[in-house]
Amino acid sequence: MYGLDENLFSEATFYKFQKRLLDHWLKTGVNLLELSFQKLTASMMASLGLKTDIIRMDSFEAMSNITSYSRARLVVEVLRRVFRILSEEEQELHNDLFAPYLKKSSSKYVYDLNSEEYVSHLDILAKVYAKVFDKFNDKYKENDVFKIFIRVFNEHFTIIDNKFIPKDSKDLSSDSLQSPDDEEATFRTKRGKNFKGYVTTVTETANPDNKVQLIVDISTDANNVDDSNILNSRIDTIKEQYEAVDELHADGAYGSKENDEKLEKLDITMVQTAIRGRKPKVKIIIKKTEVGDFAVECPLQEVIANEGKKKYKAIFNNDVCENCPLADKCKMKNSKKGRVFYFSKEQLKASIRNNNIDNIPKERQKLRPNVEATVKEFTKNLNHKGKFKLRGRFKVALHAIAMSISINLGRIYRLFRKNRVVFPVFVQIYLFLSI
Fold it and tell me: Read out DSSP for 225-286?
């Protein structure tokens, strides 16, 4: 009989379980843990009678636990790993080709290069890579390590005048290999900081009437994918799971033409707390009137727009415009009838989206920032460099899903403890596993 203080699991148990989840995902495209999360969350929502009409979304950088390789170090490190897969006979026969890169670690090797050697050494490595490819491709092209070598060869070098030379750094994409230990990690620069890994997007309920808010969707993607694209790919799943969703709170990064069209079809109003891009010097608001027309409003006047063949056209009173203190900053076009403002259907939808926040009650205008506290629950245990103790998108995704389940159950536990209510079975199980 086991006691509550005994550890019932071994690392091998978790590893094998994770391997089986990965194998199933690769075979079917279905993440069984994600499926379990969706079913468990739906059950929690129904049991607690929570409303799902209003949701909020945010993301965070899920940095992979990989070394931050410079370009030269990455090329050298992969070359060293190729040497390890060769037979003893091949290693002895081709030792001269690899020898310069085996005496030191890849980091030490690159560190000892001066600035001139660093630049010129990529030219030398291009020739070495070409020779290694010619000698070993036929035999090792199906080997996992050699596949990484071929990828680095193609990403970092090119042929000009029948010679292999390094590509210009600006020609390296954010999808290029960041580490031989994590082939899926991508590169992103955000607010002047570099990230290598993934981005995890969190969606939770946000109706103020709910006694507790729960995470309803979690996704992990390459970090060079735009937030608006992630929303576009996830919103169908969320709407299918929770049909009542009709209001989404997010920041300016999630807005796009494609999302305006999709959200309109799904009958979901997007409430943005910020506008992407530069803030206009003169605020122009486009809104739909009660009779179905479109009104265009500037700081001093409001006019009804006329629909043209390609664009809408709003003509403002010139007398008012001439006395406007913002006239020199206004970018409307001058005409004999007055200043003219043209806008397309895409601009119309974007403007309506940007101003949706002004059309809802004040108590709902500040719902989005609370999701940032949820994000901190995911990132509070990261190491000092902000990295997870994981590598690979699937492992990071599993971690995010498991954390979502834990966070939800923790919130329910605190709610029931506060109200001194008997805990449901799933909360009791959570408490048992947490001991």
Answer: S-HHHHHHHHHHHHHHH-TT--EEEE-GGG--HHHHHHHHHTT-EEEESS-SSPPPSS--EE
Using CA atoms, how far apart are residues 156 and 122, in angstroms rounded to an integer?
Answer: 9
Q: Does the pLDDT value for residue 124 go beyond 60?
A: yes
Location of structure tokens 């005994």: 6
Length of the chain: 435
CA distance 102 to 10: 37
pLDDT in tens, 244-298: 999 999 998 898 999 999 999 999 999 988 766 567 778 888 887 777 778 888 8
The whole-number average pLDDT for the span 215-219 is 96
pLDDT digits 0-9 by tens, 328-343: 788 788 877 778 888 8
Residue 57 has pLDDT above 80, yes or no: yes
Find the helix or strand (DSSP H, E) in which 378 lies.
helix 371-379
Between helix 71-85 and helix 144-156 the angle, nearest 10°, is 150
**185 burial via Cβ count (<10 Å: 0-12, 13-18, 19+):** buried
What b-and-e string marks burial along 197-230, b requiring 16 or more CB atoms within 10 Å of the CB?
bbbbbbbbbbbeebeebbbbbbbbbbbebebbeb
How wide is the angle at C-alpha 275 spanned by C-alphas 198 and 343, nearest 5°? 125
CA atoms in the 13 A half-sphere facing the CB of 6? 4
Phi-psi region of 401 (alpha: psi -120 to 50; beta: other; left: phi over 0): alpha
For residue 23, give the 3-state DSSP assignment: helix
d(CA 382, CA 376): 10
